[in-house]
Request: fold
Amino acid sequence: MTAPLALIGNTPLLRLTNLVEGLANGVELYAKAEWYNLGGSVKDRPALWMIRDGERRGLLRPGVRIADATSGNTGIAYATIGAALGYGVTLALPANASPERLRTLRALGAELILTDPAEGMDRAITTIRALVAHAPEGYFYPDQYSNPANPQAHYETTAPEIWSQTGGKVSHFVAALGTSGTFMGTVRRLRELKPHLRAVAVQPDSPYHALEGVKHMASTQLVPAIYDPGMPDGVSEISSEEAFATARHLARHAGLLVGISAAANVAAALHIARELREGVVVTILCDSASRYLSERFWAVEDNVAGAGI
Amino acid sequence: MAVTITIPTALRQYAAGKATVVLEADNVGALLRGLVEQHPTLGKHLFGEDGRLRSFVNVYVGDEDIRYLAGEATPLQAGETVSIIPAIAGGTR
Reply:
């Protein structure tokens, strides 16, 4: 017997080494299949940690609702865990969030406040902050961009899982920056275990990009408080087109339907793996493609075998 | 004819910080190329190496996505507003 929340963490580490030609014999490539989490994405980890931290600090109690602004996986994670633990969830998000997401959130019983699409996430954030400020006793506002429990989840789960699943051989860790929680928490712990670990942050090639959940740190007005720009050893810039091509390649040549940020991570990890003579490169498959199947890029034919890879 | 084009927050740093630019153009392609002529660093963010609009760039004439109109050939009337909107619902946070 398994309690639903026990399905968060301990995700499989998939071997991707055979996916690509041209890797040196001593190089291996692995990725954490984060869609195995209960809510279907890597965001279950920080959401559960922030919720448990809120309970411990007395901010989240029976009758208090979880409230945040998120159009993506974090909202689904809150709604999933909130339902499992008996907390109501109120989310503000732009009205142009995809129909799949709105339906998923509603199916999980979340209360949605839809905001003006033209004003983007900023309007959703100010809306939820106003709601919480008006009735602070009624809401718990995790604020994933500033909450240390977000990277702590990866420090305590993602990093030790990677360490044990690679038998301590991990030499390179590659992950996109959104809130930066995955990168910060995982790298902090892995560096304690292996001081020479090389950590590469994945970034879009432009502030205008299609890598959902990924933040262009060089241009954003809202740098997450949990982000330490001194943490990455390097940055790998991936175009949206390369992420799309990699997503199609993973689907058509490996049977792996992954989301766009996961595909960007694999694209960056491949660039790094190709430059190595030996090493164990690990990246994160943040979620599956199921939340992006209405995107146009799946329909593109790649004429060249292995295009994008 | 004079048409207003609105620029999303993410791209304003390449357009001298402007939220809107007014340009003379008969169709969407000419308008976007006119915009890039005024602000050359915008070019690689909107157009690929093949010179075509990048596949995920969303351009609307009024409330209509140009993909469902005539793409870059979509004609423009004086006074119309063309918007480049974020590629991801929810914007850039």
About this structure: The interface with chain B takes residues 71-72, 93-94, 96-98, 117-118, 120-122, 124-125, 206-212, 215-216, 219-222, 240-241, 244, 296-297, 300 of chain A (CB under 8 Å).
